[in-house]
Design a protein that fits this description.
- The complex is a heterotrimer of chains A (288), B (162) and C (747).
- By secondary structure, chain A is of the alpha+beta class.
- In chain A, the strands form four sheets. A five-stranded antiparallel sheet of chain A has the order 4-5-10-6-7.
- Chain A folds into three domains: 47 residues, 2-Layer Sandwich (Uridine Diphospho-n-acetylenolpyruvylglucosamine Reductase, domain 2), CATH 3.30.43; 112 residues, Uridine Diphospho-n-acetylenolpyruvylglucosamine Reductase, domain 3; 106 residues, 2-Layer Sandwich (Enolase-like, domain 1).
- Chain A has ten helices and 14 strands.
- Chain B is an alpha+beta fold and 162 residues long.
- Chain B has five helices and five strands, in the order E-E-H-E-E-E-H-H-H-H.
- In chain B, a hairpin with a 2-residue loop joins strand 1 and strand 2.
- With 747 residues, chain C is of the alpha+beta class.
- Chain C is 26% helix and 24% strand.
- In chain C, strands 3-7-1-14-11-12-13 form a seven-stranded mixed sheet.
- Chain C is globular and about 85 Å long.
- Classes of the chains: A alpha+beta (288), B alpha+beta (162), C alpha+beta (747).
- Chains in contact: A-B, A-C, B-C.
- At the B-C interface, helix 2, helix 3, helix 4 and helix 5 of B face helix 1 and helix 15 of C.
């Protein structure tokens, strides 16, 4: 690992000041499961690494507040996956968090870090997209609430501005019943990077949201408000047409070692259909 | 350590119950410090990308890949390595089960397997075999078919129930 | 006399050190004043080195040397177990991605890495070949300088050698049905969890070398030759490796590290990263064309096999892998006409080397899969066609070789029974069964020394490497049984050429048989001495005294070892020493330079579930049955068989090297090269052994530990084909490959 300076701010304001001063030469360290690999292989060469874990305001935790679930920036995947509120209100996120890496990785990797890396394959992104999550960022000009769909740009790039720091991720607590499911495709059953990720959420009003990742430069979300997708008894062709329109946004890279574009596109359809069906089944079973 | 920027950090941590205070380079991992500075070489180095689990240690009650933790991040932490598993009266139940069930072949992955198993059993004293499979999925073994490692974990759980 | 310790499964000798973290692997050993080394490599495979500028690296305080070929003895020493074709460092050009151009030696690992990044290598990329088709193209650039083999008819090609073997007359034979297909096997790597590590230190007027090597005595010879030292001045320490699987058999970078240590005059350590290990060792990929002739009654008429193996830029042991691995390619069957043509083909890739199965799994995948196709073509059950043609014990299935040395049909029938071959198949599932046979060691030389100390405890000196297979435990069990010592009173010393007598190598599943017999011989020599001692003490003729299993039998009573040893040694104490020597000399008339000491025989039967939408394969049931003669330690036998089976599932289902168009390995390391985890196991894994005590090893044992890997791909492939109705001919059987097969119009 090349040498760098390490700083451990005590407050968000301090962290923001450091990030503002150093811009791209600073890297934020939360769980480190991605950053430390990149520091070691030289693909990240920051002059300063800013560790968030001693900032009291960012202490790990998930709480319900004003109709939202608020997940602080240092909350790790293990806790997201096990949290009763997440499991009750956002089961697809719990599922996604529970398949990120191994136990050891989930004990360190944070939800905020997962989305800040903006990897197209980020496991948690599709579920956050279907749940309409909001990224809370604090910067030199105060706090910004960024809808997650407006957060991702492309691999490694987000809409965070210089000096901005993600402090929390918020999920709206649903007012009615809904069902959701997360699906992914990997090369083995043990932990692996996904070649397709799909989350689907269906609510009792008939709204279907479907999001997918790893098949394009960034994860994307689509909604069907017609009620057709949510209704298994609706015309099959009509449902397929809606799904096809949703899948049209996929453009997998031909350079990937993990799977060919043809396979990814085919699996997007398979997993999309499975996630949809699973979401519907769960809606009718016991809700999300 | 204060909030000043630094290339060297002073850390205080507890490793296997023993307090340790030392200065470390901030770009050195917890794995580097355990092996090179503290000479606790039971923790192994293999993939350095958090995939193989050979460097697994327990940090504040949870397993981590010590190759992905900067040593400075471990300031104030409680660390258990394989050297800390045995008790005054000898091998722990889990270690003895690893021996009895033949879990160790070449042995290189075993420290990591033991720590994953240890943390898992503390959290899940009555596990299913499937849960045990998931618990050690982050610890690659190339000698065995994992069966004896799983046998040892299940036997330890059963012994704990008596 | 206590219960027999042979046939029991005591705790592993060395096990406590392994569960406490005390066992010191090479990278754990602290040598005072040791320097750290790091390679300088370039980002391409085949290149002419124009210049190396180390000035910036050398300017760093604490960097002691940046050594290139120019800093080596001239001509640059070359070595290799088959051909001495591999220079200790790249000379003039690199021949594969990862071939070291220079080695940096510095005070710390950080510094060595920092300095390596500062070395500037100017190079010109040269045309290169990375595939069989590319290497065999008449216009292909030559990997090896033709002047290295002046009289060789292949010198102007990339074929290193051909290995033709056969009997009968394939061209004249006529069969009712002929099935011909081509199969491919991927390039895979050992992925021992311990990356390779080396250290060398000047040692008086000699040198000490530490290595993760499987063959310390072989390494000793290489180092002695490179440094022009007598063997006695080269001390090789080979601590029990953290997994070997063949990848650690032969010298790789030890000569370079030794030269660096001698040059600087201080200890030098080089621990490879996992990525560098990927660039150091791998299995040969292969393309195998098989024509199988079969009559309608199921009788095999001929096998016509052409197997091309893609080896690397240097021979290492790869050509032997090709020759020996392909030799029993027609399988354990009585086939009247066989023609096998195997070729080792050089390429600009890292040298391939020995890997569990030694060239055999590649041809097994093709020939066993094609046998399934033949069975289908004549409408015969796939188990029946195998039983119909299977060699029975004593059959000369390879006419000029050791006859079948086991009741192999027992193995096959047991596997069929355990998989429930004749039971109804659940919907969506498929079954496959395959047989594997591998020639054991063809030569061997294993010396051992056993010392019975004055208190009845025992020290065994054996040059085998215990890399996880449990050789220490088996040798201790033999000594304990023969000399009546509790197992905990036996120490086994290995891995130090200054102390332990010569052993040729740890490979080919030989150690239980060859070194085991050597240790047994040493123990029997001590038994004779004890018997003589007892006779002397009790005024008997030596002929009246016998000894077995630690008990000395006098005509009127039995004595323990201590009853005899203590008075026999007398007031000064002392010890008894026995030596063993097991020699299997080469036979120049044999195609492999020697008939195998035994065959490893395995039958694997698989039941799979295939997700037709995704192509996912679930191994619902995995049965592996091996003929091991006698399990000296049943638990260790099970562990080796299961380990081999799961390792084989790796190359069957998920493992393969991926290259870019410039011959750069795209997936070195653990992120994009996947090996099975604990979540990738068969839902049910059933191992069994056939034990007729008919092997050449101690107590009727045979070598084992590779068998369960030989035919695993063939059995899984057959099961998948059974489930989906489409043959699979390329490994690994990734979900995407299965899915593609299902997209074919014929399916």
């Amino acid at each position: 690992m090349h040498a760098f300076a390490y700083v451990r701010p005590a407050t968000v304001a301090e962290a923001v000041a450091i990030l503002l001063a150093h811009g791209p030469d600073a890297r934020v360290l939360a769980g480190g499961t991605d950053l430390v690999i990149r520091l070691r292989d030289g693909s990240a060469k920051p002059s300063v690494v800013v560790d968030l874990k001693r900032i009291a305001e960012l202490r790990p935790g998930i709480r319900e507040e004003d109709g939202h679930l608020v997940i602080s920036a240092t909350t790790v995947m293990t806790d997201v996956a096990a949290d009763p509120l997440i499991r009750r209100y956002a089961s697809a996120l719990a599922e996604a968090a529970s398949v990120v890496g191994s136990v050891q990785i989930r004990n360190r990797a944070t939800l905020a870090g997962n989305i800040c890396n903006a990897s197209p394959a980020a496991d948690t992104a599709p579920s956050l997209l279907v749940y309409g999550a909001v990224v809370v960022a604090q910067g030199p000009d105060g706090t910004r609430r960024i809808p997650i769909d407006e957060f991702f740009v492309r691999s490694g790039v987000t809409t965070l501005a210089r000096g901005e720091l993600v402090t929390a991720i918020e999920l709206p607590v649903p007012t009615g019943r809904r069902g959701a499911m997360h699906q992914r495709r990997t090369r083995r059953r043990g932990h692996d990077l996904a070649s397709v990720t799909v989350s689907c959420c269906v609510d009792e009003a008939g709204m279907t949201r479907l999001a997918y990742g790893s098949v394009g430069p960034r994860p994307v979300v689509y909604a069907d408000a017609t009620g057709v997708l949510a209704d298994p008894s609706a015309d099959r062709e009509a449902r397929l047409a809606i799904l096809e329109a949703m899948f049209a946004g996929a453009s997998p890279s031909p350079r990937s070692m993990r799977a060919s574009p043809e396979y990814r596109l085919a699996m997007l359809r398979v997993l999309g259909a499975r996630a949809l069906q699973g979401a519907i089944d769960r809606l009718h079973a016991d809700g999300d | 350590m204060a909030t000043d920027m630094t290339n060297l950090g002073h850390i205080d941590l507890t490793v296997n119950g023993r307090h340790r205070a030392l200065d470390v380079a901030v770009h050195h991992s917890l794995l580097d410090v355990l092996r090179d500075d503290l000479r606790l070489t039971g923790t192994k180095e293999c993939c350095l990308v958090g995939e193989c689990g050979a460097c697994t240690v327990i940090m504040d009650g949870r397993t981590v890949d010590s190759c992905l933790v900067l040593a400075v991040e471990a300031d104030g932490a409680q660390i258990t390595t394989v050297e800390g598993l045995a008790t005054d009266s000898g091998l722990s139940t889990l270690q003895q089960a690893f021996l009895d069930k033949g879990a160790a072949q070449c042995g290189f992955c075993i420290p990591g397997q033991l720590l994953s198993a240890e943390a898992f059993l503390r959290e899940t004293p009555h596990p299913t075999r499937e849960a045990a499979e998931e618990a050690i999925a982050g610890n690659l073994c190339r000698c065995a078919g994992y069966e004896q490692i799983l046998d040892a974990i299940m036997a330890t759980a059963e012994a704990g129930q008596q | 006399m206590s219960a027999p310790i042979i046939g029991s499964s005591p705790n592993r000798v060395g096990g406590i050190a392994r569960v406490t973290g005390q066992h010191e692997y090479v990278a754990d050993i602290l040598v005072a004043d040791a320097l750290e080394a790091k390679f300088v490599t370039i980002d391409c495979a085949h290149a002419r080195i124009i210049s190396v500028d180390a000035s910036a690296a050398l300017a760093l305080p604490g960097v002691l040397a940046v050594m290139t070929a120019a800093d080596m003895p001239q001509p640059v020493p070359r070595f290799g177990p088959q051909l001495e074709d591999r220079p200790v460092i790249a000379v003039g050009e690199t021949k594969y991605h990862g071939d070291p151009v220079a080695i940096v030696v510095a005070e710390t690992r950080d510094l060595a890495m920092q300095a390596a990044a500062l070395v500037h290598v100017e190079y010109e990329e040269l045309p290169a070949v990375f595939t069989l088709a590319g290497a065999l193209d008449p216009s292909a650039p030559l990997v090896q300088d033709p002047s290295l083999r002046p009289k060789d008819r292949f010198a102007s090609t990339n074929v290193l050698r051909e290995h033709p073997i056969g009997w009968g007359d394939v061209d004249a034979a006529t069969a009712d049905v002929v099935v011909e297909h081509t199969y491919t096997f991927p390039m895979v790597t050992h992925f021992a969890i311990e990356p390779h590590a080396y250290m060398a230190a000047p040692d008086g007027d000699g040198i000490a070398v530490w290595s993760t090597i499987q063959h310390p005595n072989w390494l000793q010879k290489v180092i002695a030759q490179v440094l022009h030292m007598p063997l006695a001045k080269v001390r090789v320490f080979a601590p029990d490796p953290g997994g070997g699987f063949g990848g650690k058999q032969h010298a790789k970078y030890e000569p370079l590290v030794a030269l660096a240590a001698m040059h600087i005059g201080r200890p030098v350590r080089l621990v490879l990263t996992l990525e560098e290990t990927f660039q150091a060792v791998r299995r040969a990929s292969a393309e195998v064309r098989v024509r199988t002739g079969v009559n309608r009654d199921g009788s095999l008429v001929f096998e016509d096999i052409v197997a091309d193996y893609l080896i690397g830029a240097y021979a290492d042991i790869a050509d032997r892998v090709v020759g020996k691995g392909s030799y029993p390619a027609a399988g354990p069957y009585n086939v009247p006409n066989v023609r096998i043509m195997a070729r080792s083909v050089l390429s600009h890739t890292m040298p391939s080397t020995a890997f569990r199965g030694f060239g055999n799994p590649q041809v097994n995948w093709a020939v066993e899969s094609n046998l399934d196709e033949a069975a289908r073509a004549i409408g015969m059950d796939r188990l029946q066609i195998r039983l119909h043609n299977l060699a029975r014990k004593g059959d000369a299935f390879i006419p000029f070789d050791t006859p079948a040395d086991g009741h192999w049909e027992q193995t096959v029938l047991r596997a069929a029974e355990l998989i429930g071959w004749d039971s109804p198949l659940p919907e969506g599932r498929g079954r496959g069964i395959a047989l594997g046979v591998k020639s054991g060691p063809t030569t061997g030389l294993s010396y051992s020394t056993v010392r019975l100390l004055g208190d009845g405890s025992v020290v065994v000196f054996a040059g085998t490497s215990d890399m996880g297979q449990g050789a220490r435990t088996v040798f201790a069990q033999i000594a304990a049984q023969e000399l009546g010592a509790p197992l905990g009173w036996v120490a086994v010393v290995m891995g130090d050429t200054a102390v332990v007598p010569y052993d040729q190598q740890t490979s080919a599943s030989r150690s239980t048989v060859l070194m085991g017999n050597s240790v047994l011989q040493a123990c029997r020599s001590i038994q004779k001495q004890l018997s003589a001692m007892a006779a002397r003490l009790h005024g008997l003729d030596e002929a009246q005294v016998t000894m077995d299993r630690g008990v000395i039998h006098l005509p009127d009573r039995d004595l323990t070892v201590l009853d005899v040893l203590v008075p026999g040694l007398g007031r000064l104490g002392g010890e008894l020493t026995g030596n063993g020597e097991v020699r299997k000399d080469a036979d120049p008339t044999h195609p492999l330079s020697g008939a195998p000491a035994f065959f490893e025989f395995n039958c694997t039967a698989i039941e799979v579930d295939v997700d037709r939408e995704t192509g996912d394969i679930t191994i619902a049931r995995h049965v592996t049955v091996s003929d091991v003669g006698k399990s000296l330690n049943p638990l260790q036998v099970r562990m080796q068989d299961e380990g081999a089976a799961i390792q084989g599932l790796g190359h069957t289902l998920m493992e393969h090297y991926i290259w870019d168009e410039k011959g750069r390995l795209r997936n070195p390391g653990a992120i994009d090269y996947r090996i099975p985890t604990s979540m990738d196991l068969p839902l049910e894994l059933i191992g069994a052994t056939i034990e007729n005590e008919d092997g050449p090893g101690p107590y009727g044992s045979k070598g084992m530990s590779e068998g369960a890997l030989l035919c695993i791909s063939s059995a899984v492939g057959a099961a998948v084909r059974d489930a989906i109705g489409v043959p699979m001919r390329d490994l690994p059987l990734t979900p995407e490959r299965v899915w593609r097969a299902l997209q074919e119009p014929s399916s």
